[in-house]
Amino acid sequence: MNSDGGFDIERIRRDFPVLKREVNGRPLVYLDNAATSHRPVQVMAEITRFYRDINSNIHRGVHTLSVEATERFEAVRERMRDFIGAPHASEIIFTRNTTESINLVAHAWGRTFLEAGDEVLISEIEHHSNIVPWQMLRDARGIALRHIPMLPDGTLDLDEARRLIGPRTKLLSITLMSNALGTIVPVAELAELARAQGARVLVDAAQAAPHMPIDVGDLGADFLACSAHKMLGPTGVGVLWGRRELLEEMPPFLGGGDMIASVSLEESTWNELPHKFEAGTPNIAGVVGFGAALDYLEAVGMDAIRSHEVDLTSYALDRLIDVPGVTLYGPLDPELRGGVVSFGLEGVHPHDIGQVLDGEGVAIRAGHHCAQPVMRRLDIAATARASFYLYNTREEVDVLEAAVREAADFFGGFGG
Amino acid sequence: MVNLDDLYREILLDHYRRPRNRGPLETANASAEGSNPLCGDEITLELQLDDDGRIADVAFTGDGCSISQASSSLMTEYVRGRKSDEATSAIDAFQAMMIEGEEAPEELGDIGALAGVRKFPMRVKCASLAWKTLELALAQHDRHDDATRATVTTDERSTSNG
Question: Exactly one of A23, A246, A363, A370 is catalytic; which is it?
C-alpha cells in the first residue's frame, strides 16, 4: 500500500471500485463511513477465493477442505488478537456485529454476576446498542443504570464521571468514539477510575477500531466490541474480546453446535474458549474476508489512517464553519474527534440536506444516528453527518461544502 | 436520475416556508400525534369538530423535513371546513396517490403536487405522516376518547445502524 512510505491515496482509491461509480450523474462522494465502509477488492477476492477453492464447515471433519477452512478461520482470530493487542487468540469471539457482542456480555456476564443495587455506568453519547441491552438487564435484574452526562461541546462531563464512579459501579460500558458526534472519549482515564473501584470495563469500539490504533491493555479494558463492516470487512461479522478469566467464568450465550464439549439428552458440558461462545456455524467466509480487511488496514497503517482523517476532519470543519447557517456539533478540535462531522443548516431539515446532497452524488447520513439521547441533549431531532475514511479526499470535502451551500440556497432566504 | 424539482415543487416549498394553520388550537376536541422516528419528523394535529361532524378548525405543530411540514400544511388547508367523511375520502385518495400511484382527484388541488414524492421511496412516509395522523385524530374523536391523545408511528423500522 505504501509505495514510498507515504499515504498513497490514489493507490488506495483504486482498490475500491465503487468509488468510480456515478450517482445521479455525479461522481460518488461516499461520506457515510460511520454507517458502513466500503470493501477493497482484496476483501472481495478473499471471500470469492474461499467459496471457490475451500468452502467447508469448520472444527468438524477430518477432510482436507474442512481443515483448510478451519485454518483460515482461526488465522483471522490471531490477526484480530494482534490488531487490538490482546494477550490470547482464544479471547477473540466472533459474533454478528457490535450489538451482538454487547448483548453477549449483558446476558452471559451481566445476568450471572450482577444483582439488584449494582450499577452499570454508560454515557449520554452512546449508540442505542450500548444503551438498550443495559436497560433490558436493569429490568431483568433490578440493577441501576446511570450515565455520564454530555457537555454542550459533545465531550463528556469528566468531573461528573468521577463522582458517578463508586463502589457500587460494577461495569463501565462506554464508547471510545461517538458515532453521532465523533467525540473521542478518554476511556483509559475513565477505565482506571472504574477499575480502582473493582468495576469491569467494556469498550464499544465500533467507531474507533476502524479509524485509530487500538490496544486493549492501554485502554484498561476487560471487554471490547467492534464490527467488521465498518472496517473494510463484510457485514455480518462482529468481534467480542474479553479477558480470559472473565470469559471462562461466564456461562454460554447461545446454545447449540460447536459450543459444547459433550451433550447427553439430560445435560451438556461446554467447549473451551472461544468456542463456548460461538454456537452454530459462523459466517466463515465473512470472517476469512475480515482477515483480508485487517491485512489491508495494517498495510496502510492505523496511525497513517488516523492522521489522514484528522487532516480531512480539520479541513471539513474549516470549510463548513464558513457556510452561512451551518451549526457544527461536537468538539471543534480535530484531535478530540474521529472523522465524523455532524452539522445542521438553519431552516433546512437534515433529511432535506441529505436529499439535495444525494442529487450531487454526495452520500451522507441524516437522522438521529441511533443516538437519540444526544439529539435530545442538543435539542434537535436529527443532524446531517458526513463521516470519512482512508479513501476520502480534500477534493471530496470541497464537493460536500459546495453541495451544502447549494442546499442552503435551494431552501434559503428564511429562518427555521 | 433524480430530479429534485420533482420532489421539491414550488408549491411545497411555499407551504414549508409559510405553513398554514400552524400553532396550537385552544378549542380542539380531537387530537393526535404522529412521528417518523428514523427521520425525526413529528406532528401534533388538533381538530375542532362540530356536532354535525364538520371540521370547524384545525391546526398543527411539530418539526420535520420540508415534505412532512408542507404536507401537514396542505392537509390542514384542505380539511378545514369540510365534513369528517370528506376528510376520510381525501385520506383514501391521498393514499391511493402515494401508494398505488393513482392520479390525484382534481378537487385535492395543490395536494397533487405531492405525487412526485413517489419517485423518492424514502420520503413517502414523510408525506404520509400528516394524513395518518389525521386519520387517527378522526378515529379518536369517533370513539369519544378524549382522555388520551392517540399516537401513530409511520416508520415501521425503529432502529438502524449508526
Answer: A370
Q: Are residues A151 and A245 in the same domain?
A: yes
CB contact under 8 A, A127 and B162: yes
Q: Is residue A351 situated within a structural domain?
A: yes
Count CB atoms within 10 A of the CB of residue B57. 18
**Test the B interface: residue of A130, A207, A351, A374 with most B CBs within 10 Å:** A351
Same domain, A153 and A295: yes
C-alpha cell at position A195: 477499575
Residue located via cell numbers 394524513: B131
In CATH, what number is assigned to the domain containing residue A397?
3.90.1150.10
Which residue has cell 435551494? A410
Are A414 and B19 a contacting pair, CB within 8 Å? no
pLDDT in tens, A22-74: 999 999 999 999 999 999 999 999 999 999 999 999 987 789 999 999 999 99
Q: Which residues contact A370 (CB under 8 A, 6 or more apart)?
A: A127, A128, A129, A179, A180, B159, B160, B161, B162
Cα-Cα-Cα-Cα torsion A406, A407, A413, A414, nearest 10 degrees, comes to -170
Measured CA to CA, the distance from residue A326 to residue A407 in angstroms comes to 11
Place of cell 431552516: A347
**ipTM score here?**
0.83
Q: Helical H runs in A50-181?
A: 64-83, 98-104, 111-113, 132-141, 158-164
